[in-house]
Every structure is written in C-alpha cells, then in structure tokens.
Amino acid sequence: MARKFLVAGNWKMHGTPASVDALLGAMRHFSDAQAWSSGQVDVVVCPPSLYVPAALAALTGSSVAVGAQNASEHEAGAYTGEVSPQMFAALGVRYVILGHSERRSLFGESDALVAAKVQQALSAGLTPILCVGETFNERQQGVTSTVVQRQLDAVIALVGIDALHDCVIAYEPVWAIGTGMTATPAQAQEVHAFLRAHLATNSAAIATKIQILYGGSVKAGNAAELFACEDIDGGLIGGASLNAEEFLAICQAAQ
Ligand code: PGA
Fold this sequence. Notes:
Layout: E1 5-10, H1 17-32, E2 41-46, H2 52-59, E3 64-68, H3 85-91, E4 95-98, H4 101-106, H5 111-123, E5 127-132, H6 136-140, H7 144-159, E6 168-171, H8 185-202, H9 204-209, E7 212-215, H10 220-227, E8 234-237, H11 244-253
Parallel strand pairs: 1-2, 1-8, 2-3, 3-4, 4-5, 5-6, 6-7, 7-8
Bound molecules: 2-phosphoglycolic acid (PGA).
The site of 2-phosphoglycolic acid has 13 residues, from strand 8.
C-alpha cells in the first residue's frame, strides 16, 4: 500500500511578527500556485504557539496545515504557561509535535510524560507527530534500536496500538538535529524499517499504514535520496523550514 508523504516544518523558537508574516505569505503564495499540492504530499508548518493564529489565518483554505510544537498532557486547569491540545484543536490546528529531543533533553520530558501528551492530543483530535531518536553516545554503544523501541513502547503501552492509526512517527537521530550531520539514507532506512517491523509485531495493519518521517538536517540537497527509501514517508524539517524556497524544494522532493 502506498503511503502518502508528509513534510512538516518545525520553526522552533524562531521568528518576529514581520519575519513570520513574510514566511507565511511565501507559503501561501507557493501553495496557491499549486507548487506542492499534487495530492501526494501533505504539508504542515508548526510555528511557535504565539504565531499559530496568524498561521491559521494566512493558510486557511490552502493546502498547508498548521501544527503545534508541543502541548500539555492536561486538558485545562491551573497549569501556568501551558497550552492544551484542546485549545489548539479549537482554533483549527491539526498536528502537534510531541517528544521532540529538545523537549526530552532540555525540558526533562520522560517517555511516560510524552505518552501522556500523545494520549491527550489524540483525545483532542490532533494528530501527534511522535519523535523518537538516539543520541550520538547511544548510537556508538549500539543501542539505537533499544532506545527508539523503548520510546515507542511507552506510547503503545498507554494508548494501545490501534490508537497509532491516528499518529505519525518521526525518527530524529539527536546527533543529526541542527548539526548538518544528516543520517545517511541507509542509516535512516535501517531504523525506519526496524520501527515498522516492531510495530508489525503489534499490528500489521498499523505498521503498513503509519507514516514514519525522517528528521535531522534535511535540506533540499539531501531530501530526495532520503525520501527514496522504502520506509521513509516524508520529513520533519527544522532549520530548512524557515526558508520558504528551501522548504518548497523539500516538499517537491517528496513528490
Ligand atoms: P533540523 O531540525 O532540520 O534543523 O536538523 C530538525 C528537527 O529538530 O525537527
């Protein structure tokens, strides 16, 4: 079964009102020009929370969806500084990145917390983009598959395998994020195939259906060879998603 490709832009904590306006304007222009809306590729941009309403306004009726970069594991309540997935969903947000390595390492998010966030996001009707990936040391120690399996199993244990029907997985080797050190297509494909095979031990249907994105220093120049791999169904793009033309070229590589 052919899986549709998904290219997601993770803007991280970048942008001013003026630069965000310009980037959204360019995205809107490209999408209206049908530059990437062949129907084979879904595209989503994930701006900082504060700019989500502007993104929704600029991209309404376009082929580009809007996602969040993080959301609370709670629906509402006394959680100062947090935003719930229900709040994002009520505005029209469709996706949420969860378990990004920066959240795990800089904000101490455990496998259990990430799983709770996935559960809440699903109950809000958002599509979680669940990130998994090993550090450089873990790869050196040969425990890459143990690490990504542990991260994935924490989610499956809480929400059940069938709930992954509405999830996307992103494999992001931590050592490749923002470093310019992309995994080779063979390295990425090996982990993607492992993840899919592991999912298949729980449900063959979910394993066949689920989109597994690669993330970590994807650029216009290396996207096509990564996307050509059998088990890579698109990308989660950080730095290169801040440049509309570069991001467009990556989206085109997915076609
Ligand atoms: P990068 O980031 O493309 O800048 O390496 C990817 C990510 O963190 O999702």
